[in-house]
Design brief:
Elements (H helix, E strand, L loop, with lengths): L3 E6 L6 H13 L8 E6 L5 H8 L5 E5 L16 H6 L4 E4 L2 H6 L4 H13 L3 E6 L3 H5 L3 H13 L4 H4 L3 E4 L13 H19 L1 H6 L2 E4 L4 H8 L6 E4 L6 H9 L3
Parallel strand pairs: 1-2, 1-8, 2-3, 3-4, 4-5, 5-6, 6-7, 7-8
This protein binds 2-phosphoglycolic acid.
Pathway: Carbohydrate biosynthesis; gluconeogenesis; Carbohydrate degradation; glycolysis; D-glyceraldehyde 3-phosphate from glycerone phosphate: step 1/1
GO cellular component, one term: cytosol
Pfam families: TIM
């Protein structure tokens, strides 16, 4: 009913040759994706075209950028627009990763504009949300994530929302080796889905893929993906090792 997705977020890692090797190694595994399953590779900007051409004959494999700018075009030296990404065949754009929020001061309001650009160009945002450790310890994570959803997504129409993928990434679990337990992940994913249902209706909520991210690896992916409201994963570190990434994809079914 809703797509099951494993997306690899390479972040600022690998040379072109290493990235090419990684994609070839993943393809070499001969994965047979089932109907409704997708694999997404989010490479650095300079490798997107290459990644797209390596994956073009592999149904179910897609390419994502890790960011784009909030304006359509113009004098924004160093930035990359959604239209540019669309023009080279990119499928998805990760938006609002906690590293972008922290190191590049991306606010919920700015992300709302980025989402508009991505959707206006026919691309699909993978919208990241998730709380820092202090918020989790204060047990106010639901309010925190609700506000992120509200300020970045609630201006969309139901039709637009259908093209949005949400990734829940508790910041305390990213790159730390700490993973949310499957119960913590399921609780938050169910909460996010209920928020989406309240705003956009049950039907839209049931069709929204919600991915988990944060130290997901072959050893815990099966349990996480087994949760009713977890529709796959956004994978950082483990997506840089072909065998691990492939093993995680295999946990989808
Ligand atoms: P991690 O990163 O898997 O290395 O924790 C996840 C992410 O930041 O998307």
């Amino acid at each position: 009913m809703r797509k099951k997705i494993v997306a690899g977020n390479w972040k600022m890692n690998l040379t072109l040759a290493q990235g090419e090797q990684l994609i070839n190694d993943i393809l070499q595994a001969g994965l047979k994706l089932e109907e409704g399953q997708e694999v997404v590779v989010a490479t650095p900007f300079p490798y997107l075209l290459k990644a797209k051409s390596l994956l073009k004959n592999y149904p179910g494999f897609y390419v994502a950028a890790q960011n784009c700018y909030s304006e359509k075009s113009g004098a924004y030296t160093g930035e990359v627009s959604a239209e540019m990404l669309q023009s080279i065949g990119v499928d998805y754009v990760i938006l609002g990763h906690s590293e972008r929020r922290e190191y590049f001061q991306e606010s919920n309001a700015m992300l709302a504009k980025k989402i508009d650009q991505v959707l206006a160009n026919g691309l699909k945002p993978i919208f990241c949300c998730g709380e820092p450790l202090a918020i989790r310890q204060a047990e106010t994570q639901n309010d925190y994530v609700a506000k992120q959803l509200e300020e970045s997504l609630y201006h969309l129409t139901v039709e637009q929302l259908k093209n949005v993928v949400i990734a829940y990434e508790p910041i305390w679990a990213i790159g730390t080796g700490l993973t949310a337990s499957s119960a913590q992940a399921q609780d938050m994913h169910a909460f996010i889905r209920s928020q989406i249902a309240n705003k956009f209706g049950r039907e839209a909520a049931l069709h929204t893929s919600i991915l988990y991210g944060g130290s997901a690896k072959p050893g815990n992916a099966g349990e996480l993906f087994g949760c009713a409201d977890v529709d796959g994963g956004l994978i950082g570190g483990a997506s840089l090792v072909a065998a691990d990434f492939v093993a995680i994809i295999q946990k989808l079914s």
